[in-house]
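are you around this afternoon, could really use another pair of eyes. what follows is a protein written twice so to speak, once as letters and once as structure tokens for the fold. i want to understand how the tokens follow from the sequence so walk me through it. anything you notice is useful, everything is just below.
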Amino acid sequence: MFDRKRSPIDWIDVVWLIFILVLALLPPINEIHKQLILLAIGGFQFLEGRLIAWQPSRGRVYSVIIKIGLATLLLGHTGEIGINSSYYPIYYLPVVTAAMYFGPIGTLLWTTVAALAYCSYLIPAHWDYEVTVEGLYFLAIRILFFFLAAMLVNRFAVEIRRQVARYQALSETLEATNRQLQRAEADARRSERLAALGQLSAGLAHEIRNPLNVIKGSAEMLAQKLKDSQPLASELAGYISSEVNRLNALVARFLDFARPSHLDLQPQKIEEIVDHALETVAAQSPDPTVRIERSYAADLPEVPVDAQLCERIFVNLIHNAYQAMESPGAAADRVLRLSVARESANGRSGVGVTVQDSGPGVPPDLREQIFNPFFTSKKDGVGLGLAIVAKIVDDHRGSIRLENHPGPGARFHVFLPDTSEGAVATKQTVGRESGVAR
């Protein structure tokens, strides 16, 4: 119920403060420069993370350089001569920092720089003091321990970075798999709904069609008999016949949705089918203000599809795009973007088609319902257009989805797989009860 608030100071920072405080209490205590340098070291430890966040590429380099400089200054104020200072282990701070931030070669280079900074105190010592061979031995041992600690820490740091990279890759794989599972579950639920509603629609359509045929035949006979004697009655009978025709067309759409699809699969160029669908829609509802942008990849493979049914997919999507760009809320610049590219999904290769308009788009609360039968946002719509499109795509063992994208309008993506792995034409009957391979 209650979330624990994170402390602005980490516990490791408190440990650092304790170490710096202990060093400040050790001799020489009255050396103000020593205390200021220790204060600078402690303060920089708090600001190091912000420096790296501000300068990701150069921040690590600056951090090591600053720590080498502060360590060199500290040695100059904590001993009679810097080379003999008991505070020489302060160089482990930049050495370990370099080992954590860089690779083995970078660690060796920065450790060499730290060792040279430490050895720089040999210059004044050589002029004022005698440098013995035994002293050089001690100096060499100290420097070797710098390199030993640096490579030991670097080995663990490199392994930790490798483990983090593996975990990140595994996390990304799991996220992708989770998205695929969620999409598969949504497709399975939609397929189940379509199957149940398809069976219901088929039964209702057959039951409705029979009385409609009787009504239509009776109305036509009545119109013929009353054509000369009673024109008004004949006209009313004509209205009955025309409305029956409209109902028959609606029943036909129900049957198209319900009946199994008989696919005549032939290798086809999808881009040609998309262009033909665009010509069909443009001929039915010409709008010179709509700008067409095509993005077709070169050397696209032929995919075995039923050309007639496949064209219905893109006719419906393009027609919906035209209507969306005429609705309130659409952008003034009407653009229809069509793209066709080679793709692969779930280990299957094929072709992906994207249809994007510049309309008002689909509200987030309706995105999961647009492929459901009988769902429509149009006043005169039935709600079977996208449901039939989804059914045809499913019958081709493909997938269709409404993509999220930063731009305006809606973007539908259709993937049609190469189910034959060859150019041999096949004929196939696919029903809703046969399931969908995803």
Notes: The radius of gyration is 38 Å. Confidence is low (pLDDT under 50) at residues 1-7, 422-438. The longest helix spans residues 133-225.
